[in-house]
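Handout, tutorial session.
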Amino acid sequence: MILAVLVAFVATFGFAASAIFTRLGLQRISPTTGVFVSLCTGALVVLVLVFTTQTANVRSLTPIAFLWCLIFAIVTFPLARLLSYTAIQLAGASRSTPMLAVSPVFATVIAMIALGERPNLLIGLGILVTVLGMGLILSERRSNAS
């Protein structure tokens, strides 16, 4: 469990750094160009890692697994990243990135619908804290805008 928390923390740091680097890069290029560069470099790194460490697992994948990976790749990477980069360019990293914090709410709802998962008390509390935190961020921004 400690390893999972540590890995999640490192991932969170990586996503935060990504938002800052994205904002810096988008000062000179468009969001669509940024997404293209990001996808190409990211795909290259991931493909090298996968094929050097998981070749046997890749070969054992079924066609339906490849289809789900393709759907995931189309929805998550180009579309979500383009929208995220556009938001970062328009509003800045510190304003747009907190909106990504509501993704656990969507993940939980989709998991309940598509996979039949049932959240427990801790997941419910996590969602509540997430929603309350977003409410505080948005209400603070509205009061500053007035």
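The second record follows below. Compare its token runs with those of the first.
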Amino acid sequence: MDDMKEGKIYTNPEQNITLRISEDGFSAYLTIKDTDGMIDEKEITKLLHTTGIKYGVEEAVEYNSQHGIQKESNVPFLVALGKNPEAQSEVSYLFNTENCFNHDEQYNIYELEKFEKVHKHQPLANLKLTDISQPGMDIFGNETPSGVSAQLNVDNYIGDNVYYSEEDNQILALKSGYPYVDYQNKIYIKADFFINEDIIDKTLKIFGDVTIDGVVTNSKVEVEGNLKVKGNISNCIDTGIYVNGDVNIEYSENSKIVSSGKIVINKSARFCSMHADKEIIGEENSSIAGGLIQSGKNIDVYTIGSPFSLLTEVEIASAPYLKEQIKKAQSELSSARNNPEENEEIIIELTSKLKELEERYEEVFNEHLSDELGDYQIKVNNKIYPGTHLRILKHSKIINEELDSATFSVINNKLDINEVDKFE
């Protein structure tokens, strides 16, 4: 390879065409200056020949076509593209390919539990080169020696909702869901579900993002992903809605909703126990009355409480999602211990899980102790009624009179209305 032609810039005599060749000799970009005169294609061809480019013009045309790239004035445009060595590869799956969701079949949502499932960012497969079957070629027509710069053709394995880690030579899950391999040997994850029915007196567990176009009543729902419920959620206080992701609801009453992300309330929540590691947001004209809402970050809602002075607790606390997961694991462990011989494996698993959750909670709690408390806010955009109890970590306040558009934070080591708001 002629090193003088690598990493060089060439121009034609009129200085209106510039050709830049990459340092490794595997690509060349042409820039045509925006001038009044026409650029003769022969000038471009002559410049390419002058630099010694012999390979990759057709490959560049194909690449530009596949990616929708069009030639523009004053913008570098790919005109030659080398070829990396082609390599044979081997894939080893890290999930049970014999027990997978079949995307060509229709399933009842309660059947999903029996299929292989994965969490977000979980490794799905290892890839490795096994042989260099064909050498590469740079744009000067020089072959790349066998074994040099060989690359896996990852696109042969990548389907929807997965991604490739070059560092680990692994394919991983972009979302939680149900993995499968299609007829082209590409790896996919089924991760989006639309449920067009009511969930009443059921136990439902789904991996993926879920939209329920119906009501949820007296049911236990667990979702690894985001959850949106278009109907009313009611009487799930004992069973609970547990979501490792964001939650978006219209109406909810007498229900427990636990989220590792944020909770958005579009209409109303009454007598609910809501716990979100991130924000809790009440959209315009929404209301929250009775019960407890607890966030690990800020709270930004519309109306809190009731003219009838219903006890409504609004708190910013350490890791609410983790805390509720600990309570849930403790309850499950207690039930399993009622029959220790039959539940021996479950007890071991839950004990280990509980220890891990408690260690993570302690870490987050210690981090919160060093936080600047002034960064946390409870914002009420419309009205906050008497009977509302506010708390930001260890600082609390009881509302004894109706207030409009108030923002609360820790000021001078006590929870109070922000000074800015007092003078608005």
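Points raised in discussion: Residues 1-6, 419-424 have pLDDT under 50 and may be disordered.
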